């Protein structure tokens, strides 16, 4: 079962090209600092601007580097069902442990369209699928009813919930039970999310604060007082990493820590000077810089 601190990996670039060397170093950092799983090719990994070959390459690298030590949850979503199926089949063959499939963006399917989209992916793979529900980016919002219907399928295992609505945790727990994996996609609400029945986060902050994020998730289970203390420490950092469009802020933070360059691909641009100062200050508050 997926749980704890799972990182939505950034994708490092060097002169506009994928930096495989930096990507391997990033994964090694997570293996050494208690991260419970990695997501190559998600939103934070700039999947919309990766070529198909690059997307497949980072999945292969993640699988090869993790070597079964921690799960690889490959981002394989698309607003084309056939494309999502093709990438999902590739990820399974490459050795990924789970798939993270975002709700189709831009073409605004109905709830029935959502069901059929995920069913087709489900029917073409043999590994567990995590639904990624993020209305702020996809426009559409998968209903609890649709999710419950999907959970009857053999490979639908859980949700990365980025609705920001904590009541969803209660509703989904009631509808699908404790075996349905609920992970938050919002770093800032992780404490309350876990209190209500969530089991972890697929987060952005873990990219540059892996041990803090891991310790926080562990404390949510073992020591709620410590969890509250770590949450207070992390909140300014969470806020700073979303001061502009993700992942520009976290890539700048990573550059300050010597992890990779701050480069992002158009139409994203690097963060403004005033944002850089705020990110730097948040890193200092968290004692990372």
Tell me about this structure.
This protein has 289 residues and is an alpha/beta fold. It has one domain (4-222): TIM Barrel. It has 12 helices and 10 strands. The chain has helices spanning 20-32, 52-66, 81-94, 111-124, 135-138, 144-151, 167-176, 190-195, 210-222, 224-240, 248-256, 273-285; strands at residues 4-8, 13-14, 17-18, 37-39, 73-75, 98-102, 129-133, 156-161, 181-184, 200-203. The strands form 2 sheets. The protein has an 8-stranded parallel sheet. It has a two-stranded antiparallel ribbon with strand order 2-3. α4 (111-124) packs parallel to α6 (144-151) and α11 (248-256) crosses α12 (273-285). The chain is globular. The two termini are 34 Å apart. The model has no long low-confidence stretch (mean pLDDT 98).
* Proportion of residues in β-strands: 5-15%
CATH architecture: Alpha-Beta Barrel
How many beta-strand segments? Answer: 10
Low-confidence stretches: none
Number of helices: 12
**N-end to C-end Cα span:** 34 Å
| Helix vs. strand class | alpha/beta
What is the CATH domain class? Alpha Beta
* Neighbour order of strands in the largest sheet: 4-1-10-9-8-7-6-5
Give the biggest beta sheet.
Answer: 8 strands, parallel
Helix content percent band: 40-55%
Mean pLDDT: 98
